[in-house]
Design brief:
Shape: globular
CATH topology: Deoxyribonuclease I, Chain A
Strand content: 15-25%
Number of helices: 6
Order of helices and strands: EHHEHEEEEEHEHEEEEHEE
Structural class: alpha+beta
Number of strands: 14
Strand order of the largest sheet: 3-4-2-1-14-13
CATH architecture: 4-Layer Sandwich
Largest sheet: 6 strands, mixed
Radius of gyration: 19 Å
Distance between the termini: 6 Å
Number of domains: 1
CATH class: Alpha Beta
């Protein structure tokens, strides 16, 4: 019986060039993109070496055969990162297809297994002829010991609304609902009658949390999907820390990252629990479920940490 460990992780701006500064004008951003890998240190802050070390530790600690990633700048960035931190032999197969995000943050994947099939859905359009996905819905198929395993990697629309930050979640919900509809349609059209018996997972940063008014409600209600984080105790389900001390404590820790598995995988792995790694979070996160952090975490200005997201990993037999 084949068994693989899969993981998902929003690594928070794995850039080779720079981090975008929110105070920049659109013209400055456009010029930076046009000029390729040239770093203007007056405008941009280079990603710090300690942060890259922490990102590499997060990758390694998943012990995953396949890692889905969000917020990676480009394929060269990913290849160079793997070479620098001794990940290339572990993950000989790397993939990133430039998507729709103007900030150049894309979904990507590292794998121990070759890709059997690759398909981008970044060109899917809505009724107004606008692209549906903020980044992409990257579809991958692997053959594991002669059996098919499919992965759909996503990074949905952010809850942040520049025009109205206070009501950002509500104002951006319609876009995420549209993306969820498109995602479910892609999976159903791909698998048809096999949707209840196939081995597949839908993973990524979905930028909303479980609630009665969640924009992800259709995913929660789909009978052939299981949100495996739901198998954990209530206080262990969060995957993201929002560094905003104006919010109540409980509002700063939410599940934004998901690992949905198919009905067949859920049934075959009924007793298996996902692992959420919180060791790379900032020291500003003080939740009781956070274990001892990596020693490189610093409460400096700015803080040194891996990401404001946690990784989720899970071993699956099929």
């Amino acid at each position: 019986m084949p068994a693989i460990t899969i993981a998902t992780f929003n690594c928070q701006n794995l850039f080779r060039r720079f981090k975008f500064d929110s105070t920049l004008t659109q013209e400055q951003v456009d010029n930076a993109i046009k000029n390729g890998f040239i770093i203007n240190t007056k405008l941009f802050e280079a990603v710090k070496e300690p942060e890259r070390i922490l990102t590499a530790k997060m990758f390694k600690d998943t012990e995953a055969d396949i890692i889905a990633l969000q917020e990676v700048e480009n394929l060269d960035t990913l290849k160079n990162f793997c070479t620098e931190y001794n990940l290339s032999k572990t993950y000989p197969y790397k993939l990133l297809i430039d998507g729709n995000d103007p900030r150049l943050i894309d979904v990507a994947v590292l794998s121990k297994y070759p890709f059997e099939r690759i398909l981008t859905h970044q060109y899917v359009k809505d009724s107004q002829n606008k692209k549906v996905f903020s980044r992409d819905c990257l579809e991958l198929e692997f053959m594991i010991e002669g059996k098919s395993f499919m992965l759909f990697i996503n990074h949905l629309k952010s809850m942040f609304d520049l025009t109205n930050p206070k009501d950002g979640r509500a104002n951006t919900a319609s876009r995420r609902k549209l993306q969820v509809d498109a995602l479910l349609q892609i999976v159903e059209e791909r698998l048809k009658k096999k949707v209840n018996t196939a081995a597949f997972a839908i993973v990524g940063d979905f930028n909303d949390y479980p609630s009665t008014d969640s924009s992800l409600k259709k995913l929660f209600d789909t009978s052939w999907l299981t949100n495996v984080v739901d198998r954990l105790p209530k206080e262990e389900k969060w995957t993201h820390f929002w560094d905003n001390n104006k919010l109540p404590e409980e509002e700063r820790y939410k599940q934004l990252d998901y690992l949905w598995i198919s009905k067949m995988l859920a049934n075959k792995n009924e007793a298996v629990l996902p692992i959420i790694n919180r060791r790379g979070l900032s020291k500003k996160a003080t939740h009781k479920s956070i274990p001892k952090r990596y020693p490189e975490i610093e409460e400096s200005k700015p803080s040194i940490y891996a990401s404001d997201h946690c990784s989720i990993s899970m071993k699956l037999e099929f």
